[in-house]
Design a protein that fits this description.
Helices cover about 35% and strands about 25% of the residues. The strands form two sheets. The chain has a seven-stranded parallel sheet, sandwiched between helices. Strands 8-9-7-10-11 form a five-stranded mixed sheet, covered by helices on one side. α3 runs parallel beside α4. The longest helix is centred in the middle third of the chain and has 16 residues. The protein binds nicotinamide-adenine-dinucleotide. The site of nicotinamide-adenine-dinucleotide has 26 residues, from α1 and β2.
């Protein structure tokens, strides 16, 4: 049984993580916090105030913290987890350089696993995109992501990961063009990036590769957020007890 703590517990993802944990036979939630505490329990877990995180961590000694909050909060939690030698799994996106550096620094002292997307389907999409990009070296590439209307960061963390995958294979694509307006002819060194926000869409990503007389479209659609929660819990179980270092979700999938 892996003892977990959950941060951002009252958020869209935090609630999913607590619901998934209740059904997961290998995990046990030691405590959960949110910036603003909630009165009722969520999936049977009392959600405490985030200001008590340090003392809760010291008292309950979970093996891993699962975090879906915001970039600054995630960086701070990673630092505290490193001080206590507690593993840290985060799905939070939108890190700036300083917050990302704090996350990386934490991995010197504890096991840190960050994934912009905990869906196995998106992991498969990443592999397919790399293959297709290599197989169509002259294609124009456009990436479109769609998310719910409360998403803060744009483009999504998953979109940025896909862009890095594409740029890794196609070194000639040096320009990310975010949307187009007015006189905007396409150049051969650009990747078009489009972020749509509407309703309660859990997450869609499409990579379009356009050549002469043919186009290839690779699309992933998240049906609901439970897939991300399941992946994050798999990652937490996998990470428990590992030595300090930086890990990624492909390592979890490979087992
Ligand atoms: P949300 O706004 O619904 O939830 C965030 C929660 O964190 C809120 O309840 C907020 O009060 C709480 N919070 C903020 N700062 C906190 C702090 N310091 N301590 C404790 N709680 C704090 O957002 P969401 O839709 O759940 O997404 C959260 C993050 O996860 C975003 O960065 C999002 O992009 C990312 N995300 C990642 C994946 C993935 O698979 N990796 C999937 C979905 C969302």
């Amino acid at each position: 049984m892996v003892r977990l703590a959950v941060t951002g517990a009252a958020g869209r993802m935090g609630r999913e993580v607590l619901a998934a944990a209740a059904d997961h036979e290998d995990v046990d939630v030691a405590f959960a916090v949110n910036r603003s505490p909630v009165e009722d329990t969520i999936s049977g877990v009392a959600v405490k105030s985030a200001t008590d995180f340090d003392s809760l961590l010291a008292d309950h000694k979970p093996a891993v913290v699962v975090d879906f909050t915001g970039p600054e909060s995630a960086a701070n939690y990673a630092t505290v987890c490193a001080q206590h030698g507690v593993g840290f799994v985060t799905g939070t996106t939108g890190f700036d350089e300083a917050d990302f550096a704090a996350l990386e620094a934490a991995s010197d002292s504890t096991a840190v696993l960050k994934a912009s997307n905990f869906s196995r389907g998106v992991a498969a999409l990443r592999l397919a995109v790399r293959e297709a990009t290599a197989a169509l070296p002259a294609a124009d590439i456009e990436l479109t992501e769609t998310h719910h209307n409360a998403k803060r960061d744009a483009p999504s963390g998953t979109a940025k990961t896909l862009l890095e995958d594409i740029e890794d294979v196609r070194e000639d694509l040096t320009e990310r063009v975010h949307g187009r307006e007015g006189e905007a002819p396409r150049s051969t060194d650009e990747i078009g990036v489009h972020a749509r926000r509407a309703g309660d869409v859990a997450g869609e990503h499409e990579v379009l590769l356009g050549g002469s007389n043919e186009t290839l479209s690779l699309t992933h659609r998240a049906g609901d957020r439970s897939i991300f929660a399941d992946g994050a819990l798999d990652a937490a179980v996998w990470l428990a007890g590992r030595e300090a270092g930086w890990y990624d979700f492909f390592e979890v999938i490979e087992g």
